[in-house]
């Protein structure tokens, strides 16, 4: 079963009933496992969650009672005809499984919760809603896929594919007054849906991409208010997306293609007299390809001719006699699923900062920020005038666009004017990664007011904030936000600008963990795990890219291993056991596959990428040629596989696969023994050729004998601090564990130096050289920039995790996943003088705001209701500590002295800690 939350933003104002003065307590964000649209979830026992907020400390839930009804009227009347849980003794307020009457296809459910706390009872007054989707393939049997499986004049089936958009319409006559109506749509590759001329929903680039031969996502909308008694018009536009692939008839051995755009739709209508009707796609729909969208290609851009606009095409009484009858077409092949992750939306706007004319008469627009989305254009001119906009990330020395790093992506939008006053246009079915735009075709000099940047990514909330005393670290954080958000495209992609844009697994092995502090990425990554599972071969192999739009099945450990590490992130950060249970059989199958095929003498012999993107010895090199900088691939794969075995042991417990635990234990023990025998140098106390990654992985994964750990760590530190002069020398693999391991072994100051450096190689070097996102290469500005994506996130490694867990002190206790108990243990002595961070966990907002000088440390913390925190202060002198102005001896909480720290266990609430 999947776990997916819907943020309903319902605020229920409630009050405790207590003998004491009434205190305000709020229950907010009632959630069900679904996306921001509460319609069409595809599980029959969804999990329900809520947050408790209070203006007093030490609020704990003791019981709950959930009431669920088939209508809002019944729920308001106290008739819980679907489920009355009764008063359940439990402190769990997330992932509570619905256990009422069996839900049916398209069942509406209205629910509310009563909370009982140690401070009193909370009486609920408001409700949340969700509906079940269409759960069986058979329920779509009367609905036919329709489309037009031919090219039109101007289309091209080639390396640079061009295909005009498909416009479909149908008029319907509703004889009675509508009580309720929902539409279920599968529009491949991308769609926009209209009823009576109005677009349904504010999503863009919908639905999310999948391998359409494995699964196809449908979206559901409540359209009751859009329909009227009498005549109505339904209209859709179909774009190409990942379905009609960007590169047709080109490298078919590598690039997977799916066919021409197509659609299946069902509109369920219930009338006020209780009767019902269903409108489906069939050959009575009309279709044309002769509309204004002449081409839409994610790599190359969108071309639009406003002279071909069909006014009123999606309203009633439009003359569609010249349109064709829609054709019945073959279905995509994949199983139909309700989309449980969020669609993309326009999330913000960016105004350009400058526009300059070039020597050839064109104009360069600077957005001031490397962003992902598109431009909205405002223009006046004559019919037939063409405005061309070409997008890129950077400029050449002469001020013109630098496009070599885009490879063969044309990244160009073309708008042809209709000549009717001011015209406003923006594309529908593409996106660009860009900071600069070359503009041509204006008859007069364009101004900044002619353009607005639209930022597009998945409709998920930003959950984390971070500010510190170090400006470089703060800018790196901002760059990370822009890079991560821009690469959320219904799946996590590697880059948004060149002819790649693929969901590489290795980019997110640990990256997803760091991202989870900035974004509510739970549904995105749960969906992606399904993509990975669906890409698994019959014998167990996993690809490097999933969905496998590119056929890269190379059989290595570090990239496919992301399947397991992302599931672990979802468990640790969101408390999601169900995702582990669901994916466990496929994970086990892959682990067995790798063991059977590539484990030789207990060493994992298969590695493909090594420590990818190690900083080269010269600013001009793309890849290092110095063997002393490169880590043995079998060392990496063996250490990584050992770590995955340990995670799988934990998963086996969750999945109740007890028989697997012994095998994982025994195999891990053998690999550890063989690893140390082969790679450990007892005379030097290091591993292999003594790279940072070679020593780091066994230290981090617990493969180093305890009595040797400090000596190995000293070798690691010497390599970082002396040999590499306090700079990063790890690639994608080592950087995933570098910052935390340095800090956990007592060298947070060295980690801070790496984080705050401004010289090569470092994250700060990117900032100092104008980066507003994260580069693909440490030296992306000098090492043949044609190779460098300027918006990649793979080199972040564990930096963001370190920001939150080690600098801010916001970490989920592994024993209580999902932040039920928080470990708050900042490294106050690493080098920062203040940190102000927050994180919106599944239980509520966690805040850590500390500031120190030579005399005192002041730390303001917030712990969500129904949770607790273990808080570490760097002193063994308890008398120097006050909590909310009370001496520790007088404070009601518990504390102990441990390893020169004063450790407090605090219940929920807001606290001011002072330490002299």
Describe the structure.
With 916 residues, the protein is an alpha+beta fold. The protein has 5 domains: 11-131, Immunoglobulin-like (Sandwich), CATH 2.60.40.10; 137-341, Jelly Rolls; 345-458, Jelly Rolls; 464-808, Glycosyltransferase (Alpha/alpha barrel); 811-915, Maltose phosphorylase, domain 3. Helix content is 19%, strand content 30%. The chain contains 14 helices and 49 strands. The strands form 9 sheets. Strands 21, 22, 26, 27, 28, 29, 32, 33, 34 and 35 form a 10-stranded mixed β-sheet that branches. Strands 36, 41, 42, 43, 44, 45, 46, 47, 48 and 49 form a 10-stranded mixed β-sheet that branches. Strands 11, 13, 16, 18, 19, 24 and 25 form a 7-stranded mixed β-sheet that branches. Helix 4 (522-534) packs parallel to helix 6. The radius of gyration is 29 Å and the shape is globular. The two termini are 50 Å apart. Mean pLDDT is 94; it is low at 1-22.
In terms of per-residue confidence, which ranges show pLDDT below 50 for 5 or more consecutive residues? 1-22
Q: Look at the structure and give the CATH class of the largest domain.
A: Mainly Alpha
Number of strands: 49
Distance linking N and C termini: 50 Å
Q: Determine the number of helices (DSSP H or I, runs of at least 4 residues).
A: 14
Domain Bacterial alpha-L-rhamnosidase N-terminal: 176-347
Protein name: alpha-L-rhamnosidase
Pfam families: Bac_rhamnosid, Bac_rhamnosid6H, Bac_rhamnosid_C, Bac_rhamnosid_N, Ig_Rha78A_N
GO molecular function: alpha-L-rhamnosidase activity
